[in-house]
Amino acid sequence: MSEDVNPFESLQSQIDDAAAVLDVGDDVIERLKHPERVLETNLTIERDDGTLERFTAFRSQFNGDRGPYKGGIRYHPQVSRDEVRALSGWMTYKTAIVDIPLGGGKGGIVLDPDDYSEAELERLTRSFAKELRPLIGEDRDIPAPDVNTGQREMNWIKDTYESLENTTEPGVITGKALDSGGSEGRVEATGRSTVIAAREAFDYLDKDLEGATVAVQGYGNAGWIAAKLIDEMGATVVAASDSSGGIYNADGFDPVAAKDHKNETGSIVGYAGSEQEITNEDVLTLDVDLLIPAALENAIDADLAENVEADVISEAANGPLTPKADEVLEEKDVFVIPDILANAGGVTVSYFEWVQNRQRFYWSEERVNEELETVIVDAFDALVDTYERHDLENPRTAAYVVAIQRVADAFAEAGSWP
Ligand code: NAD
């Protein structure tokens, strides 16, 4: 990557692009570019060998005008204050574009979880939950999984919170295991919305999804489910990558078998259905109909974007394109379905989980998937309507126009408080 991109600056430039079209005052836009508050905390836990280690952790509550803050908790060495601030902003506009009554938040701990035992990770997660306790709650701020966290960590946070509060409040966190109050369909939800959005885009562009070629960057939760579901819709997955490298087969491969290989060996590289090993960069620049970036942010910068050959990009990852890459892809007429819509399935089914937790009444997987389908299709229609009505340069700006208008309206309707 030749560009040094600060994700918080990326977020702000996306908001500025939308603000140019919106009839919202600069003072309100300025408010909507910054988090309401950011917790930075130091967590010190005992390692298994008896020594102590300190970790830096963050929770950013970006905006609560439309409902409780909502967003995941990430464990990664590159977690930073600016990354968490940016991700919390994207959550705000994500919940707004899909029109669910939640705000935006995000958190993270700076660490590589591979370097720690399960017992150490549990102590660390519970320590973070203790710090978060005054901030979170089903009506205040509802964390969820993100990179390198999952049901296990969510169950620990729920248990810590409930023990300290002496209550049962499963809606304090989402992404839980089913027996702990999780929702059917949550694990698949992000990949599912990524492909529903892609299907709608192909329909809008009059392109055939049947037989369309697909490359997927990142074969974790979001990426592999997207690969499986797009294959079920009739498309052909020809390439995929994970942090160890990429695989390619011009005739397509079985996404489930590739995942089984990754489960067994730790990587998709070496999967027998692959014709050829390729680099991570090759996966991003293949001549395919659909590219699904599903790893980390800033995966495609302006230089790489020059070589992107896909017709449609559905952003499963958050912020996978730098703003300069966006400009290049717009010039090249690539239809980019923005992250805040494409990967909104995760937060949407998190919302369904929260609704079920509060009702203490649980839905079937079929109902969850049907409701998700409606939310994503409605959001795509709202995006396209705004895209055409304002003759906007790209779908991302259209998504921000819809989302920022909704947040600004909620802020205006609340009135001012001294
Ligand atoms: P994950 O940890 O399950 O998977 C990440 C995958 O990316 C892994 O396969 C890893 O090997 C791969 N990867 C890392 N660096 C790579 C590189 N340079 N090239 C190719 N592959 C690389 O994470 P996830 O939950 O699937 O999340 C992926 C992205 O989707 C993140 O940006 C996350 O914020 C976003 N997202 C996830 C959810 C969710 O519900 N899981 C919801 C919304 C957005």
Compute the separation of the termini in Å: 46 Å
Order of helices and strands: HHEEEHEHEHHEHEEHEHEHEHEHHHH
Ligands bound, unique: nicotinamide-adenine-dinucleotide
Rg from Cα: 20 Å
- The CATH architecture name of the domain at 189-342 reads 3-Layer(aba) Sandwich
Helix content: 40-55%
Oligomer: single chain
Strand order of the largest sheet: 9-8-7-6-10-11-12
Class of secondary structure makeup: alpha/beta
Total beta strand runs: 12
Could you say what the CATH topology of the domain at 189-342 is called?
Rossmann fold
What's the overall average pLDDT, rounded? 96
Principal-axes geometry comes out as: globular
* Low-confidence sequence ranges: none
What is the CATH class name of the domain at 189-342? Alpha Beta
How many helices in DSSP terms?
15
Beta fraction:
15-25%
The major β-sheet equals:
7 strands, mixed
Could you state the CATH homologous superfamily of the domain at 189-342?
NAD(P)-binding Rossmann-like Domain
Commentary on this structure:
The protein is an alpha/beta fold. Among the domains are: 35-171, Leucine Dehydrogenase, chain A, domain 1 (Rossmann fold); 189-342, Rossmann fold (3-Layer(aba) Sandwich). Helices cover 45% and strands 17% of the residues. It is built from 15 helices and twelve strands. It has helices at 7-19, 26-31, 81-97, 118-132, 151-165, 189-204, 221-232, 255-265, 280-285, 302-306, 323-331, 339-342, 345-359, 365-389, 395-414, and strands at 37-46, 52-63, 69-76, 104-110, 141-145, 213-217, 236-242, 245-248, 276-278, 290-293, 312-314, 335-337. The strands form two sheets. Strands 9-8-7-6-10-11-12 form a seven-stranded mixed β-sheet, with helices on both faces. It has a five-stranded mixed β-sheet with strand order 1-2-4-3-5. Helix 7 (221-232) links the parallel strand 6 (213-217) and strand 7. It is globular and about 55 Å long. The termini are far apart. 53% of the residues are buried. The structure holds nicotinamide-adenine-dinucleotide. Residues 146-148, 190, 217-223, 241-243, 280, 294-296, 316-318, 343, 346 line the site of nicotinamide-adenine-dinucleotide.
